[in-house]
Write a structure and sequence with these properties.
Elements lengths: L4 E5 L10 H10 L4 E4 L8 H11 L2 E12 L2 E8 L6 H26 L6 H9 L6 H10 L6 H7 L14 E2 H10 L3 E4 L9 H13 L4 E6 L4 H13 L3 E5 L27 H4 L1
Parallel strand pairs: 1-2, 2-3, 3-5, 6-7, 7-8
Antiparallel strand pairs: 3-4, 4-6
Helix pairs in contact: 1-2, 3-4, 4-5
Amino acid sequence: MSPVYDLHTHTTASDGELSPKALVVKAKSSGIDVLAITDHDSTEGITEAENEASKQNIKMLPGVELSVTWTDKNFHIVGLGIDPANRKLQASLKETEELREQRAINIGKKLEKIGVTKAYYEARALAGANTLTRSHFARVLIHQGFAADSREVFKKYLVHNKPGFVKTSWVEMESGIKLLKDAGGEAILAHPLRYNITASWLRRFLTAFKESGGIGIEVVTGSSNADEINTAAAYARRFELSGSAGSDFHGYDNTWVKLGKLAAMPASVTPVWEKWEG
């Protein structure tokens, strides 16, 4: 039987519900053989996860989900198999952390104007000493009754032209990919159909992504339906990119995203793990 992969998950080191140790335990009980921890712009959970993975007899890939900017648009790139101790990568992550903190302060100010009480302070309390993301604000909005779940939050409050949106420019895409490659990793475009851009813009991005050294695209995600998988697979074939599979598991109210329940990779796509198994 082929190994079961989940190459995109989050822990409390960014905006996940479970500690790195608890996520590894849950992944093992969910039938996952190879797990990648890919927290947002943070590698803080990797050591704890690796220690538990050795006890659980599960293979763990150290990873990160980088926020990048290309032509004034923001994307997420998953780096797989990175060296978390790489100094240039860590220096860049520290700069991004400072950008995230300033963005969070500004988001808090904007949400206060529509009646969200102490938005920044509640979100920061939820994050603790870890990376503060929009998902923490989503939990605040849900708790205060502004939305039923995170999907509603992002649709109504935290995206472009909505009251809690704050425009931010991250590391340039080409530089981000170079950071991942120099740290020994491989660059994968995360959830390609979740960016609010046209198919034409996505094709332009994938051209630049491939030219910059990107090698893969998430074909199967935790929220993908059959049509979305087929569409992502078509992009993988067109741009000669490997296909990755990752749940983007966070926990909380994301009840539609389950560990160990990913759909199969289409036979027409070369999986990113094919060379690992060779």
